[in-house]
Design a protein that fits this description.
The structure holds two protein chains of two kinds. Helices cover 76% and strands 3% of the residues of chain A. Chain A is mainly alpha-helical. Chain A is globular. Chain B is built from 15 helices and six strands. A two-stranded antiparallel sheet of chain B has the order 1-2. A two-stranded antiparallel sheet of chain B has the order 3-4. Chain B has a two-stranded antiparallel ribbon with strand order 5-6. In chain B, helix 1 packs across helix 6, helix 1 packs parallel to helix 13 and helix 6 runs antiparallel to helix 7. At the A-B interface, helix 2, helix 3, helix 4, helix 5 and helix 13 of A face helix 2, helix 3, strand 2 and helix 13 of B.
């Protein structure tokens, strides 16, 4: 007794998924924003801003997946097979995005437009289906005899489709503010120009999800509006409005690191709102983390490694970002 | 719709994606170590030829690494999507091992790869060399964890079963399970040999085109040294692995040998060179064998005996028709590799290594042999584990998710079409890069890399391309 291992593991997985959303979020956002940028040099510069760090960003997704398998193997099996189709499509998107990222530089002029389109399509697909999985997850999975009883196409409902679109917009915000941080000149100006409507769209998406989930799920409404919970959670919507206001103001006054940092705060708040809604379930609506946790021997063994190694990972990842700090200029890149 | 059951489709999908995936990490493991060696020698001897080779092979490495990452991503999720009942049953063992792979290997590789490919001017030489070494260590750690997990599925120990689920009891026993050391050594050596054959064939191609610049000769020569050292050792490791398998998975060995009936002690087991194992009739048709050689190889005695396949209930037998031949493909290519290494050594001694057209042609032909042998070996060990997913504990048919034939057919078709387009293109780009050959000292301190910063693959663009691009 003493240490609540499943809880610690939920925190680690939650941290991993959040790192993924934030970091691969702006990578995927770049692919989404490709749609608005046609100049070849600008597109190259956009890709170059994430070139050296992209792989590390995506690795957090694998950490989330393997952490779930290690700590909650039953939930892993049930959730992944329940979301078979959207996950397969997400992986397909990540494959196209991942390789076209690169092949567009390798291709000759006739094939290059194809890989640019694949980059856009892959980024949209990956982001959209991550959002679909998120929405379907919040909606919950019917578990019968230790397996999902939902059909493979049960994700085709209004709410998951909406969260799919929401995640695309959220990643676009991370991408656009990241590019404001990492670029200058004409490219930066066009990014500042499109950042405002994207910010408003993200706010709208957060508000809609915040209204939709308690309306659709009484348990979630109960969680949020029961006293004294309401007092603890009130700061979340207040901070959301504040963060949005800061992004909009900094786009005007100080278009550098500010909008990106406040976008991180905004996405983090949206993320914590979802965690508050779902807690303590790992398979909503009713299976808790303690019911499907792996044996103590597994949780403890992996925890030692995670607690020792994750700080090192954060250390050298930060170092890698530091090595490639500064603006990326059109046509030249790193010096 | 395909004429298969859901179980068969899930197996085909897994086999297809693993077979594709395994190629890229193998080349990654070999090339990462090769690059670290090249950079180390460059720093030590201060000869630019090593840096030229480093920059040349790092471009190919970058293309290959990218494909390894995205194809591996699929694998990590298939355990849950297609094999959810396996994950529920044994996830408490394989999950932590996979988590350790991510923590110790994937992040290390990804974190230092950026510096390795794009950091030439941003960090000092020693820090850059350090990054190359970290990437190489990452690839080897990755192999270690994934083989610990795979070996545990072959020879499980260190667990107990509680409420129908595996509970790890002794992690040291789980990781250092009986087949792990053999499997790890065999696989890492296979990756090194496959890479050496690939590098050697690239050199041979340029030599046959009449290019005998020092950099070409150097990479050809280094590949030949590697083969001379590694190929014979691999045969010894393989032999030891075989003895280990005989001890722990006798049905697999019986199937590999196409060996059905027990042979009385003293008579000796023949080694079948040719034969068509017939699962239905329980015999091997058209068997052509060498007396006693089977005993000699498998038991290291003249007349030792092994269990025949009939000793095992029908439902516990792996498919001998496939195993018999996949094993022979692996061993045959291994023996040819040893011949190649010896021919290389002979021509080197005669002083004709770069002139011998026989050697160059032979090396070129053997370019894909390492990868083919590795796939054949992988088929042998994995199909040989059947009908079990965890040997003796859980049958494959009990491990699969509850998906319909339609779902799995569509998924398989999607993956096959996509893999063919995506990885087909990537492999074409790799061959184009090989054809360009190493450049001589024109990339002073990585200038071209700095003009062309981007993701790994784009490091693959030569200066000519980037000049073109700027117009």
């Amino acid at each position: 007794m003493g240490i609540d291992l499943p809880l610690l593991w939920l925190l680690i997985i939650g941290f991993g998924v959040m790192m993924y959303v934030i970091m691969d979020g702006f990578d995927l956002g770049i692919g989404i924003l490709f749609l608005f940028i046609r100049e070849r040099d600008h597109r190259d510069t956009m890709v170059n801003t994430v070139a050296p760090v992209w792989d590390g960003n995506e690795t957090w997704l694998v950490l989330g997946g393997s952490g779930l398998m290690a700590a909650f193997p039953k939930a892993y099996g049930i959730l992944l097979s329940a979301f078979y189709v959207p996950l397969l499509l997400m992986l397909a998107g990540l494959i196209w995005r991942g390789v076209s990222f690169e092949f567009r530089f390798k291709a000759d002029d006739t094939h290059r437009p194809f890989w640019d389109k694949a980059f856009i399509a892959g980024s949209f697909t990956a982001a959209f289906f991550q959002g679909v999985v998120l929405g379907a997850f919040i909606d919950g999975v019917h578990v019968v005899d230790g397996a999902s009883a939902d059909g493979v196409m049960s994700w085709m409902r209004p709410f998951p489709i909406f969260t799919g679109i929401g995640v695309v917009i959220a990643y676009a915000l991370l991408g656009v503010t990241w590019l404001i941080l990492k670029t200058e000149g004409a490219l930066q100006l066009s990014m500042i120009h499109i950042a405002r409507p994207i910010t408003m769209a993200v706010l709208a998406a957060i508000v809609i999800v915040a209204l939709w989930t308690p309306l659709a799920h009484p348990a979630i409404a109960h969680r949020w509006f029961k006293l004294p919970n309401l007092w603890f959670f009130t700061p979340v919507p207040v901070l959301v409005v504040m963060a949005t206001a800061f992004i909009l103001r900094m786009l005007k006054n100080d278009p550098h690191a500010g909008p990106f940092l406040w976008s991180l705060v905004l996405i983090f708040l949206g993320y914590s709102g979802l965690v508050i809604s779902i807690w303590p379930n790992i398979i909503p609506p009713s299976i808790s983390i303690w019911e499907v946790a792996a044996p103590t021997q597994s949780l403890g063994f992996t925890l030692v490694g995670a607690l020792l190694i994750i700080p090192m990972i954060l250390g050298y990842s930060a170092w890698s970002y530091y090595v490639f700090r500064g603006k990326v200029r059109v046509g030249d890149g790193y010096h | 719709m395909l004429p298969f059951t859901a179980l068969e489709l899930a197996r085909i999908q897994f086999g297809f994606t693993v077979a594709f995936h395994i190629i890229f990490p193998a080349i990654t493991i070999g090339l990462a170590s090769y690059l670290a060696v090249l950079e180390g020698v460059w720093l030590w001897k201060k000869q630019d030829i090593y840096k030229d080779l480093y920059l040349f092979w790092s471009k190919i490495f970058a293309v290959n690494f990218a494909m390894g990452v995205v194809s591996g991503l699929v694998m990590a999720y298939e355990f849950g999507t297609n094999w959810s009942r396996y994950s529920s049953f044994a996830g408490s063992v394989t999950g932590p091992l996979l988590a350790y792979e991510v923590l110790t290997a994937f992040f290390l590789e990804a974190g230092f790869l950026g510096v390795m490919l794009f950091g030439w001017k941003r960090v000092g030489r020693n820090l850059h060399f350090f990054s190359s070494i970290m990437v190489a260590i990452g690839t080897l750690l990755s192999a270690t964890w994934i083989l610990a997990s795979n070996s545990w599925m072959q020879t499980p120990q260190g667990y107990s079963i509680v409420d129908g689920v595996v509970v790890p009891v002794d992690w040291v026993a789980v990781i250092f399970n009986p087949s792990f050391p053999y499997r790890l050594a065999h696989m890492c050596m296979a990756a090194m040999i496959a890479t050496a054959l690939f590098v050697g064939a690239s050199g041979a191609w340029h030599i046959l085109k009449g290019d005998r610049r020092p950099a070409i000769k150097k990479m050809f020569s280094m590949a030949m040294w590697m083969l001379l050292f590694a190929a014979p050792i691999q045969i010894l490791i393989g032999d030891a692995h075989g003895l280990n398998t005989l001890k722990h998975q006798p049905a697999k060995i019986a199937a590999i040998e196409g060996h059905w009936d027990n042979i009385a002690n003293g008579k000796g087991v023949p080694l079948l060179l040719f034969g068509l194992p017939n699962m239905g009739e329980e015999r091997t048709d058209y068997g052509v064998g060498v007396p006693h050689l089977g005993s000699l190889i498998l038991t290291h005695t003249w007349s030792g005996t092994i269990q025949g396949l009939k000793e095992f209930p029908r439902e516990d037998r792996p498919n001998a028709a496939i195993l018999f031949w996949s094993f022979r493909v692996m061993v045959g290519l291994g023996v040819l590799t040893v011949f190649l290494a010896m021919l290389g050594a002979y021509t080197r001694w005669r002083g004709t290594m770069y002139e011998s057209r026989i050697l160059a042609h032979f090396t070129l032909l053997m370019g894909p042999a390492g990868l083919i042998a590795m796939l054949a070996g992988w088929f042998t060990t994995e199909i040989g584990r059947q009908p079990w997913v965890v040997y003796g504990l859980m049958r494959t048919k009990d491990a699969v998710s509850n998906h319909s034939v339609l779902t799995l057919s569509v998924a398989l078709l999607v993956l096959m079409v996509m893999y063919t387009v995506v990885f087909g293109t990537g492999i074409t780009y790799m061959f184009k890069l090989v054809q360009q050959g190493p450049r001589e000292h024109d990339v002073a301190e990585g200038d071209s890399l700095n003009q062309r910063p981007s993701r790994p693959l784009s490091a693959a663009v030569g200066p000519s391309n980037s000049a073109e691009r700027k117009q």
